[in-house]
Amino acid sequence: MNETWLTQEAFDRLSAELAERKGPIREEIKNRIATAREEGDLKENGGYHAAREEQGKNEARVRQLEKMIETAVVGTPEFTEGIVSQGMKVTVHFPELDDTETFLLGSREEAAHTSIDVYSPTSPLGAAVMGQAVGTELTYEAPNGKTFRITVVSAEAFSG
Asked: Which among 89, 94, 153 has a CA at the least distance from the CA of 115?
């Protein structure tokens, strides 16, 4: 099972969004579809097609939220000092670029509510550093196909 670590705040926010999408939003879209149907010919009814498309997007998000909430582990993961895991603020160094990057290794749902970049543990960089010890040098392949060499500089509990 793929666990999704979420803060209590994120879990509550996602639960509220799910309730809104399954209730008022779903009902409002259903009413717009019914109203558009009453206008007649559905082949050339832009309002009907727009509402149906919105309905599809809403239902996809409902399924996504349900899965996320079903697999959510709320709280803070247990950390092993110096080993990268979900919920940690991680700093990596790119020697070829002489650059460092600090990010939260966690759910993308946290990204809108924090000032730090968030990488999923399933992203190329996230997967590469997951479980690695501070000081480890490794390479990973970015989505654009480039291979980067990195060093894990630090891994510490994220405190928001």
From this structure: 89
Residue ending a domain, among 25, 52, 74, is 74
Model confidence over 51-73: pLDDT tens digits? Answer: 999 999 999 999 999 998 998 88
Q: b/e map of 50-82 (b: 16 or more CB within 10 Å)?
A: ebeeebeebeeebeebeebbeebeeeeeebeee
52 plus 111 within the same structural domain: no
**Residue 81, in any domain of the structure:** no
Q: 99-105 and 88-94 as β-strands: parallel, antiparallel, unpaired?
A: antiparallel
Render pLDDT for 77-127 as a digit per residue (tens, 0 to 9): 667 788 998 888 999 999 999 999 999 888 777 666 678 898 988 899 999
95 plus 153 within the same structural domain? yes
Q: Which of 148, 156, 150, 143 is nearest to 100 (CA)?
A: 150
